[in-house]
Batch of 2 targets.
Target 1
Amino acid sequence: MRLTALLTCLASLALAGCGHVADIPVEAASGPAPQIVEPAETLLPTFDVAPATGWPDGAAPVPARGLAVTPFATGLDHPRWLHVLPNGDVLVAESAAPPQPELGKGIKGFFMKLFMKKAGSAVPSANRITLLRDTDDDGVADMRTPFITGLNSPFGMALVGSDLYVANTDAVLRFRYETGATTIAGAGETIATLPAGPYNQHWTRGLAVSPDNTKLYVAIGSASNIGECGLEQEVGRAAIREIDLRTGAERLFASGLRNPVGMAFEPESDRLWTAVNERDELGPDVPPDYMTAVEDGGFYGWPYSYWGDQVDERVEPQRPDLVARALIPDYALGPHTASLGLAFTDPSKPAPLGLQGAFIGQHGSWNRKPPSGYKVVFVLFAEGRPSGPVYDILTGFLSADGEAYGRPVGVALDGRGGLLVADDVGNTVWRVSDEEMPGRAVQ
């Protein structure tokens, strides 16, 4: 009884927000040369969990000047990821974490379950992909139908010819797709099994297809924060895997990426980029989440180091040999922003702002005070590289009282001049577009 009372007391303190307050602004830990401060470990990690409330009637996120936002589809069930088909149909993965019995054990597990519930993440998974269609091209989906059901925490989607690939948390499936189809029946063919199991903290599996349509890339996050569940649980994880679609051969493409989520090929250079969530519980200012071009065979530090050779002394045993070859990411996106979604503009198609660059969906922090993320941002690119600071595109997901009306996850360009944003707390897909005309500069 005393333990229960103690846990209840500690939970009340943690849910109210506790720990070290940030010393530097998010902007200082953003860009190609972020400020990397010393870790600030405390007895209890910094907690500042925004309670998920959903959107009040008539409320919506706030777009940057010159942009407009409208609901493309509402009343969804935890929409996480998006894929736009060539005919304009939009696939949305309605998904949440699978059961993770081992991660719920112990005092830390007790707190994490409370935080997930408060943040709106501890919901049953709908385990389906829904098709949304805008038949009259007014920027609002007027048709909605279950497209694939009976999945297992689905996330990434990719179309190659008539083959639609879907990444469950434990496998990549292939379905036969016909243009205009509104449903696909059957279980699909398993082309690759993926590590999941009882330790599966980072359960999402992103997909990307090479520009020549011959390779499929799968992003697989770590089972834990820094390998604390045992490094044997991390085999094949914290990595990007390459699958040859002609032969079925698989290989490790890159490793040491704690939680790579969004992946996309930058159109000018044809290089694969990914958005990565870095580790927690080193204080509110470090390390930054990031996006980076992914080097074939590259190692990015996890769990032994971050931002190159910044050693994480909590990890045992240490591996100075691996730290010595850890690559520095290309572009920091701020500490604990939970940068998930990644989408590049296509120079041949209209898009908001009419500029070349990357849109990033930032799901929002729990390990930072004040909060970071909870918005969609944009980074200009030139000659295949980031060429400017982080610009806010869609904000207002947090109330003045710190409640989460919504949390952006996946982002996708619809090819008609709009940016689609999956909001898993608001159960909405938002559409961002220019108010009047394309080509307006970032304000």
Target 2
Amino acid sequence: MKILEWSALDARARKAALARPALARGEDVTASVARIIEQVRADGDSTLRALSRRFDGCELAALELPQGSLTRALEGLDPELREALIQARDRIAAFHRAGAPAGYALDTAAGVRCERIVRPISRVGLYVPAGSAPLPSTALMLGVPAQIAGCPEVILCTPPRADGSADPTVLAAAALCGITRVFTVGGAQAIAAMAYGSESVPRCDKLFGPGNAFVTEAKLQVSTDPAGAAIDMPAGPSEVLVIADASARAEFVAADLLSQAEHGADSQAILLTTSAELAQQVAHELTVQAAQLSRGEILAQAMQHIRLIVLADIEQALAVSNAYAPEHLILSVNEARQWLAGVQTAGSVFLGHWSPEALGDYCSGTNHVLPTYGAARAFSGLSVASFCKLITVQEVSVDGLQAIGPCAATIARAEQLSAHEQAVTRRLRVLSEGKE
């Protein structure tokens, strides 16, 4: 594997070194998704069943799983796995509960009370993919904050297996989050069903969860349609960037890079290091470890996007990382916390040699639904706030109107909005005439 010297690269070569794999959002994907959405909107359940036959190879008598399926899945789960999911749920809940948005109120002037109240989104739709492997962790990451937010209705869609059932680990994780309604619908059609509704699937106000290129495209399309649904955030392939100094262990760094690379053929993993020797050791470890892993075909493709880059110092590495805006950032350096202040852009940060990104994927407590493909420049990871509406309230007394009314009237005149001005001055005039 080639090792790049940052100082030897010109601007064009540096840009190429950090270029992300091209998103599979060509005209074919866009058109195919648009057709699926149109068909689901027109024919509802019949289209969803037809697409399940076509894409999943199964015949579905009912799209919604019967009552009791989730409880049975949880009870039938391997005890060790069930306990691991419970522990993960509890840590995720503890972290997210601490950061949940809260209401507040203050007087911004005498007689002017301003406040913010928090209300849950009424109906949310969660999507848990099941392409090459089931993802019960995603059910936890979506279900826990939805439960803490108090969303009155939470539905979950996940692709059916060949026999028409859903993966029991996903169902068990959903049950642990209090979810009771699960639909065996996958792909772009699941997004369309949750955005617009069908005979079986209720229309949702906001959609959450990762997916392949078709799911991502469907989310983008429904989010730009006034009749569609809001979405959590833009999504792209998984990615990790590791900043490492000479104190890092090549074995650990390579394992972290591969743990993201195995997500998909278009995943990206980057090492920025101040040690040329470490870069060479990591290159060797990547080859050795990849040969021992189960997802060999995916890794073979994803490893083409791995970049090993040697830089002058940690400050320079942080500057490169901030410009790249990684989904996951690992600081595998001595005294890692002292460098945290230099991190300005990242989805989630992992400090030190003993903080593998995989813990964040599963059970540390933070959320693994994060902005990718550079979206971390402006977006944050999933939280309880993602499932809430923050509504402002103002209550103004007579004294308050007299105190701040002239301010509003002056600004309204400057903007030449006379109706705005009169909405204030008519009230002030009544007060001045003693007619209140």
